[in-house]
Amino acid sequence: MIKRIAITPGEPAGIGPDLLLEYIQQAQHQQLIAIACPELLKDRANALGLPLTLIPFDPTSAPEANQAGQLFYLPHDCHSTQAGVLNKQNAPYVLACLDSAIDGCRNGDFAAMVTGPVHKGVINDAGIPFSGHTEYLQDRCSVDKVVMMLATEGLRVALATTHLPLKDVAQAIQKDSLSRVLSILIQDLNTDFGIAKPRILICGLNPHAGEGGHMGREEIDVIEPVMASFDPKDAELIGPLPADTLFTPKYLDEADAVLAMYHDQGLPVLKFKGFGRAANITLGLPIIRTSVDHGTALDLAATGQADIGSLATAIDYACQMSQARV
Ligand SMILES: NC(=O)c1ccc[n+]([C@@H]2O[C@H](COP(=O)([O-])OP(=O)(O)OC[C@H]3O[C@@H](n4cnc5c(N)ncnc54)[C@H](O)[C@@H]3O)[C@@H](O)[C@H]2O)c1
Ligand SMILES: N[C@H](C(=O)O)[C@H](O)COP(=O)(O)O
């Protein structure tokens, strides 16, 4: 069955449009719909020397897989864009594209949404508070909690906290919130990844997992009690383990996922292993959202040098997850 997948290319000055235009040069098994500015797509295709046939998306027609070089689109207009040069006037455009994708997933027009990279800084420069798609999707879908998980071949890393200044992380590791994160992780590994009783490695927050309370107490006061509150029939929770040695084959070979306490505890390892072949997946949503593992790479926009591997991985995950939910 042909699935409809919405794709938001993200920041117009970045590599998101390039990646999509490169990706659709192959015929697809699904219907990919760009939610984007058609003039931007045409200009970027010209700059990259890529053939492009744009077809307006009609949600009332039967799903139709893209032929090589074809792209269905749902239009939003952006300001004229120079590749590699941010323009804060485009921030509302970036968010409007996301809103259309979310609405289309919620009303059943799309089976999933795949997001290209946005530039968080320029959206804030435009006066719009924005810390990431993950938090934006949580708000727009009116759920109390979502979980960011990045996945590549052989490793899944979920995060207990997402886009927070480091100084605020320890305060954010609280029992209620950590418990919700673990529940969502267990539930979605089960439903979307078919893992009945996931084996999850849990990082400590502090060096050496707190060294028995001498180097921080979050392991004893928060992480261990939360782990103990889960039924061992639902998941095998291992930890809190020192994060510096958790990411070694001895532990990882037997694990379905790692739960890291903060962004730069888990993601550098994941990206060292799989940058360009990983996807970012938002767990806990009523819709399916996957994303690339990289940012806007302004230095590479319109050069033809950007690697499409992560976009391909994100689309693959979106398709697999939407099949799993049928
Ligand atoms: N999914 C997202 O929306 C997302 C993810 C990560 C970062 N960002 C945002 O992107 C902006 C820039 O972030 P950054 O500079 O830290 O990271 P970045 O990923 O844009 O760039 C880091 C390095 O990786 C290279 N790179 C990135 N993607 C590549 C690709 N597909 N092929 C080849 N090389 C690639 C870049 O050229 C650069 O050298 C920030 O605003 C950040 O918040 C967005
Ligand atoms: N933390 C993500 C990463 O490093 O890939 C990135 O900032 C994107 O996050 P959102 O999906 O929340 O925008």
From TrEMBL:
Binding site for substrate: 133-134, 271, 280, 289
Residues annotated for a divalent metal cation binding in this entry: 163, 208, 263
Bilayer-crossing regions: none
PANTHER family in UniProt: 4-HYDROXYTHREONINE-4-PHOSPHATE DEHYDROGENASE
Top class in the EC scheme: oxidoreductase
Co-factor requirement: Zn(2+); Mg(2+); Co(2+)
Gene Ontology molecular-function annotations: 4-hydroxythreonine-4-phosphate dehydrogenase activity; cobalt ion binding; magnesium ion binding; NAD binding; zinc ion binding
Entry's localization field: Cytoplasm
Keyword line: Cobalt, Cytoplasm, Magnesium, Metal-binding, NAD, NADP, Oxidoreductase, Pyridoxine biosynthesis, Zinc
EC number(s) per entry: 1.1.1.262
GO cellular component: cytoplasm
Gene coding for it: pdxA
Catalytic activity: 4-(phosphooxy)-L-threonine + NAD(+) = 3-amino-2-oxopropyl phosphate + CO2 + NADH
Similarity field: Belongs to the PdxA family.
Organism, as annotated: Pseudoteredinibacter isoporae
Note: The active site is located at the dimer interface.
Textual note on the cofactor: Binds 1 divalent metal cation per subunit. Can use ions such as Zn(2+), Mg(2+) or Co(2+).
Protein name from the UniProt record: 4-hydroxythreonine-4-phosphate dehydrogenase
